[in-house]
C-alpha cells in the first residue's frame, strides 16, 4: 500500500539551468531535509523539522542521512531490445546495426522473450537510479506490449514506441507503411495514457523508412499531435551520406524529417552530432530536442557532440542526455555524464557538475515537457527519487575525506560513481531498487 511516509536526507532539486558553478540560485539544497510523501506525490518538501511538523504523528519515517536525495534520473534515449547487444565489437554504427543489433531485435517477435527482457530492463533502470526513460521497442507490436505492461507493473513514467521500419534490414524486422501505421495506432489505443505510459511515434531513421512510410508517420503525427516522435539524426558520416542518397530531394538530413512534418516540440532526435548551421536553426525553430548519448558516441566512434556550442547559439538548440543502451555502454546516468564531461573537455568546453545534475533531472524533464510531474522535488510532483552515496566505494570514501562543497561531491559522484552509488530508487514513493536476482549464466 502506498501509505504516507516521511523521507529524511540531504535534498537537492534544480529550479532552472545553472549558469555557472557559483550559481547557487539555480537549485534548492536542504542539508537536513524532509520529503512528505502522500499517495505517491510530494506533499511537502524542505527543512526536516518544518516538514515533520506538518506530518501526521504516527507517520513512517525513512532516514537516508547522510545521503543525497534527488529526483530520479531521466534517460531520454535508449533501446530496450538491445540489452544483449551492449559490448558488441564493431567498427562503426552501420556495421554494428547490421551485424549485431538487427539480428538481436528479430528475437522480439516472441512475446515470452520480450517479456523476459522487459523485466530485466526495468530492474536495470531502477538499479541505476533511473525512474523515467524514453525507449525504442522493436518493429514487433509484441515488444511494445511487453514494454508498457512492465512499466505499468512498476508504476513508472515511460515513453516508448513500436519501431517503424520497412527497408534496409532483415525480413524479420520489417513492417510496411500500412502495418507500421496500423500497429502504432493499436499500441496508442492499448497503452497511451494507461498508468504513466506515453506512446511515441517511432520511425527508426530515414535509412530504414521509405518515403511512403514517412508519410504514414506524418499521418500519425497529424492525428496525434500531442504524442512524442522519436528518431535518429546525423550520428555517423557514412549514415549521413547514405541518407542523402536515399532522399536526394531533401536539403539535408534534418530536412527529411521536416518535410514529413516530424519536427516539433515533442520530437526527440537521438545523437544529432554532425549538424550544419542550417539544421541547428531548423531544430531550434521547431523546438525539437537533440539528445546527447556520450557513451554511445564514443563507443561507436560516431563523433563529439558539440553540446555547449548548440546550447549557446543565438538560436539555441534544446538538448537532453541519454545512455543509448545498447550502442551506449552503461545504464548509469552518472557514467553518462562523466563521458559527456570528457567530450566537452576535448572540444575545449566546460560542463560543470551542477549542469550535469540539472540535465539528468530537471533538464531532461523539461525536454520531455514533463517538469510538472518529474525531474524536481517540488510539491505536487510524483515522488520518483534517487538516493545517492558519494562514498560508495573505498576509493570514493577516501576521496570524500577531502571534499568540502556540494559541487565537489556531485563531481565525484559523476566521475567515479555508478550503480553502487545508488542506495535506493523510489517510484511514486515506493522503494523499488531491485535486490540481486543471482540469475547469471557463465559463458561457455
Ligand atoms: N540509428 C538507427 N538505429 C539505431 C540504433 O539502434 N542505435 C543507434 N545508436 N543508432 C541508430
Ligand atoms: Zn538509438
Describe this protein's structure.
- The strands form two sheets. Strands 5, 6, 7, 8, 9, 10, 11, 12 and 13 form a nine-stranded parallel β-sheet that branches.
- Helix 9 links the parallel strand 11 (267-271) and strand 12.
- The protein has 444 residues and is of the alpha/beta class.
- Helix 4 packs parallel to helix 5 and helix 12 (333-346) crosses helix 15 (406-416).
- It is built from 15 helices and 16 strands.
- The longest helix is centred in the first third of the chain and has 17 residues, at 111-127.
- It has helices spanning 48-54, 93-106, 111-127, 141-154, 177-191, 211-223, 237-246, 253-259, 277-286, 294-299, 307-311, 333-346, 353-367, 394-400, 406-416; strands at residues 5-14, 27-38, 41-47, 60-71, 73-79, 130-136, 157-161, 163-164, 197-203, 228-233, 267-271, 289-292, 318-321, 385-388, 422-427, 430-431.
- 55% of the residues are buried.
- The chain folds into two domains: 5-72 and 377-431, Urease, subunit C, domain 1 (Roll), CATH 2.30.40.10; 73-331, Metal-dependent hydrolases (TIM Barrel, Alpha-Beta Barrel), CATH 3.20.20.140.
- 37% of the residues lie in helices and 23% in strands.
- Zinc ion binds at residues 77, 79, 232, 270, 324, 327.
